[in-house]
């Protein structure tokens, strides 16, 4: 508009409207309100920007000294930064006039970033970010540049560029095709030999993977690139990649809370736990106080275990997102990393680096169930109590064991651990760690243990050290579940329990049908006689409040930690615990019998209402006969008519059940295709079955091999119940912690002097008037004391001579 009116820069300067007399912020606001009216001012400022760029480059060529930039004329960099920010703000209003400005600003930062002062670099970077947000630039043009400028050593610029990259990719859609091109740029920079650039590229990949942006099967190339960084030529890049792979499960996702929607909490499914109502009643109302405490603790443990199992099945754990899960060739990765570990063993590499490599190899072997038999002989050199970080090495040894490894390959390492740790001359903490490692290794490979060795290790249950006895008892509890025949008779537990048979090497359970479909068939068979079963089961949304209502507070934690070695005490309480400590089949049979008896009682009630008093007397005889039967006495001939009547009614009930069964087609007679309703019913039946198993199970819970492979072995759990010697600083902290509620020490005299508000009762007693007799006695005593002092004051008193 200004150009159409014939306004030139000279006429603007003569009229007082030149760009020098206008503030850039005021002009920016006016341009946004009327872009066409200030086109001439924009052209002036754009020319000044180009002039400032040329002047800055000339000064940089003449007086470039260091990364800090130019110190001769700071006004040039200030004017350049201000005009760059101004033009970045008004670029959307003049797309034609400023079409070359984004490319010029990008070239300026790319070519002269080393010569720029820190403030100018930040201004130019902010201007580029503003242009990118205004859709004048795309992230593909600036991603490599922003990764390069992070290597300049400027902390503020590095944080600005890194945060913008992460936030921009985070806001992109999951299905955006730009993700592949961006991943290609970052991964190519990671593969470069330049350590600084590769480090920033690795940090970008790790941050986006940790925030679950580049995650999943579609972005598996990111996880593979992070794993391949373990073989980078730079040791720092290798250590960073190893540390990320190891610490991935400990990552705290609190920083990602802003990205999660507020509706996630509302969409969370409440865990449903089906608990028998009769078990809840017996746990709270039946039996003595001690037996009720045991049953309450058992019920609470069952609820927690079912809740934990449902949560693990419904939600993806952090280990599922680990980059190690997305390896295309995990065997090759483990072999390459193990060969690198063997090469750097004698090259003077730090012990911490070698330990990280050992842990990553063990984690990969356990997660993918690989075969790397030479790794166990390598660990055998470190299996000694005096080695630094021995518990982490032993945890790696346990992590690398799985049911696919032959026991012959692990047996030398196993014997080395037993011989070095578990003997009478070893320290108590070493014995406890050795027993715990033996238990964890035998949990994964059952064939490692022999009968003679197990019986020797079981003798440590009599040790006075709590850590040793607890470890030995846990080992006994494990073999009660997997192979009780190796134990002596007194350590096998209850004699009526089913004897478990260990699996052979390579043996596995293969499903030939839909999992748990037999529960649906059993429910179809029992639907006629099990109609009242649903009334006895309670489906509870288990939370913290519900658990507190379900289980009283007097159930202490010491009841939960009760060992299975007290089986004799549990046998004495069989009358109270018989309804809980039963197998699944027993519970189902009892429920069927209860339902049959209920139908028989209803038939008896109908017949008794129709018959006369004589038959009523027969029913009373029947009740007396049942009572005698309950007392263990022989039935008399008088009970014959009552038994005949009960048999007749039970036959009627069976006939009715058969008719109902014929009316409803069974699962076998159907086409075998399961509907959504069938799968929902299978899930409910599985929940009931798990509840019954949790209530009836005692002792060690043997997890599945897949659960063991996904679970990470914690070295701290191998040192359970071990009391380490405290340092002086730790002892002082404990002493100071006990003095927090106690005031500062003061003498009694100081307390009396500071006291306000009158004298105490004890002080007032001394001021009371004494009786006359007491006054005379005190006066006479003082006179005698004074007289004795005067008599001996003149000459020294030597006492009576013994020879006189």
Mean pLDDT over the residues = 75
| End-to-end Cα distance | 141 Å
Question: How are the strands ordered across the major sheet?
Answer: 1-2
Specify the biggest β-sheet.
2 strands, antiparallel
What Rg is obtained from the alpha carbons, in whole angstroms? 42 Å
Low-confidence stretches: 1-7, 11-16, 65-71, 251-271, 530-535, 541-638
Helix content: 55-70%
Q: Which structural class is indicated by helix and strand composition?
A: mainly alpha
Instruction: Give the overall silhouette.
Output: extended
Q: Give me the count of strands.
A: 2
* Number of helices, where a helix is a run of at least 4 consecutive DSSP H or I residues: 38
Subcellular location: Nucleus, Nucleolus
Main location: nucleus
Keywords: Nucleus, Protein transport, Ribosome biogenesis, Transport
Function: Required for 60S pre-ribosomal subunits export to the cytoplasm.
Structure, described:
There is one protein chain. The chain has 804 residues and is mainly alpha-helical. The protein is built from 38 helices and 2 strands. It has helices spanning 9-15, 24-33, 39-63, 74-90, 101-112, 118-133, 139-149, 155-171, 178-190, 195-210, 220-228, 235-246, 264-267, 277-285, 289-314, 330-343, 351-368, 374-379, 390-399, 407-421, 428-444, 451-458, 466-482, 517-525, 533-536, 544-550, 557-560, 567-572, 574-577, 584-610, 613-630, 640-663, 676-696, 705-710, 728-738, 748-754, 761-766, 772-792; strands at 272-276, 537-541. Strands 1-2 form a two-stranded antiparallel ribbon. The radius of gyration is 42 Å and the shape is extended. Keywords: Nucleus, Protein transport, Ribosome biogenesis, Transport. Residues 735-744 have a biased composition (Basic and acidic residues). Required for 60S pre-ribosomal subunits export to the cytoplasm. Residues 313-323, 506-515 have a biased composition (Polar residues).
């Amino acid at each position: 508009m200004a150009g159409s009116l014939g306004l030139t820069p000279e006429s603007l300067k003569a009229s007082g409207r030149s760009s020098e007399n206008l503030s850039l912020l005021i002009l920016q606001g006016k341009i946004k309100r009327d872009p066409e009216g200030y086109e001439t001012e924009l052209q002036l400022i754009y020319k000044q920007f180009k002039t400032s760029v040329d002047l800055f480059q000339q000064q940089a060529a003449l007086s470039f000294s260091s990364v800090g930039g130019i110190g001769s004329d700071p006004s040039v960099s200030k004017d350049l930064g201000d005009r760059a920010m101004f033009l970045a703000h008004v670029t959307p209003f003049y797309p034609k006039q400023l079409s070359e400005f984004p490319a010029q600003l990008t070239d300026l930062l790319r070519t002269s970033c080393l010569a720029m002062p820190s403030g100018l670099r930040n201004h130019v970077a902010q201007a580029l970010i503003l242009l990118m947000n205004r859709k004048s630039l795309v992230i593909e043009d600036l991603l490599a540049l922003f990764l390069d400028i992070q290597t300049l050593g400027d902390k503020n610029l590095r944080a600005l560029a890194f945060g913008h990259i992460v936030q921009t990719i985070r806001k992109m859609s999951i299905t955006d095709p730009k993700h592949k091109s961006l991943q290609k740029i970052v991964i190519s920079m990671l593969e470069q030999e330049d350590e600084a650039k590769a480090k920033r590229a690795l940090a970008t990949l790790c941050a986006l993977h940790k925030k679950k942006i580049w995650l999943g099967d579609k972005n598996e190339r990111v996880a593979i690139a992070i794993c391949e960084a373990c073989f980078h030529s730079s040791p720092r890049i290798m250590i960073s990649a190893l540390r990320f792979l190891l610490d991935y499960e400990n990552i705290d996702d609190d920083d990602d809370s802003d990205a999660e929607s507020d509706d996630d909490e509302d969409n969370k499914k409440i865990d449903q736990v089906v608990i028998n109502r009769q078990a809840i009643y017996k746990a709270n109302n039946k039996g003595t106080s001690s037996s009720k405490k045991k049953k309450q603790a058992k019920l609470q443990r069952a609820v927690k275990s079912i809740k934990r199992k449902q949560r693990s099945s419904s939600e993806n754990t952090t280990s599922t997102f680990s980059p190690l899960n997305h390896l295309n060739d995990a065997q090759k990765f483990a072999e390459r990393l193990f060969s690198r570990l063997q090469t750097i063993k004698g090259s003077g590499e730090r012990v911490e680096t070698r330990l990280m490599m050992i842990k990553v190899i063990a984690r990969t072997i356990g997660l993918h169930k690989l075969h790397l038999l030479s790794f166990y002989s390598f660990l055998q050199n470190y299996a000694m109590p005096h080695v630094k970080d021995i518990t982490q090495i032993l945890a790696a040894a346990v992590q690398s064991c799985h049911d696919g490894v032959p026991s012959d390959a692990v047996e030398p390492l196993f014997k080395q651990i037993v011989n070095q740790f578990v003997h009478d001359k070893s320290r108590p903490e070493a014995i406890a760690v050795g027993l715990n490692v033996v238990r964890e290794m035998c949990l994964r490979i059952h064939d490692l243990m022999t009968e003679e060795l197990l019986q020797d290790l079981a003798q440590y249950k009599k040790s006075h050290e709590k850590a040793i006895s607890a470890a030995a008892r846990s080992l006994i509890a494990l073999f009660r579940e997997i192979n009780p025949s190796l134990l002596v008779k007194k350590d096998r537990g209850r004699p009526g329990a089913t004897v478990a048979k260990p699996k052979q090497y390579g043996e596995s359970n293969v499903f030939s049908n839909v999992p748990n479909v037999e529960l649906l068939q059993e429910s179809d068979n029992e639907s006629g006689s099990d109609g009242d079963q649903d009334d006895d089961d309670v489906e509870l949304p288990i939370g913290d409040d519900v658990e507190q209502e379900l289980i009283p507070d007097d159930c202490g934690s010491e009841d939960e930690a009760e060992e299975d070695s007290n089986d004799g005490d549990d046998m004495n309480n069989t009358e109270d615990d018989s309804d809980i400590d039963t197998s699944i089949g027993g519970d189902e049979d009892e429920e069927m019998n209860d339902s049959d008896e209920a139908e028989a009682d209803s038939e008896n009630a109908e017949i008794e209402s129709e018959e006369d008093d004589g038959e009523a007397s027969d029913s009373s005889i029947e009740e007396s006969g049942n009572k005698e039967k309950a007392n263990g006495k022989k039935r008399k001939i008088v009970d014959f008519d009552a038994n005949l009547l009960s048999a007749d009614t039970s036959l009627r009930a069976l006939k009715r059940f058969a008719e109902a069964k014929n009316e409803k087609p069974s699962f076998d007679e159907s086409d075998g295709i399961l509907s959504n309703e069938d799968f929902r019913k299978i899930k409910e039946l599985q929940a009931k079955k798990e509840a019954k198993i949790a209530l009836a199970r005692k002792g060690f819970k043997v997890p599945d091999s897949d659960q063991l492979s996904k679970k990470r072995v914690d070295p701290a759990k191998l040192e359970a119940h071990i009391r380490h010697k405290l340092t002086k600083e730790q002892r002082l902290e404990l002493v100071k912690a006990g003095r927090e509620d106690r005031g500062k020490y003061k003498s009694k005299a100081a307390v009396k002097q500071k006291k306000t508000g009158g004298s105490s009762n004890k002080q007032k007693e001394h001021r009371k008037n004494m009786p006359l007799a007491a006054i005379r006695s005190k006066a006479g005593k003082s006179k005698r004391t004074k007289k004795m002092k005067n008599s001996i004051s003149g000459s020294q008193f030597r006492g009576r001579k013994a020879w006189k």
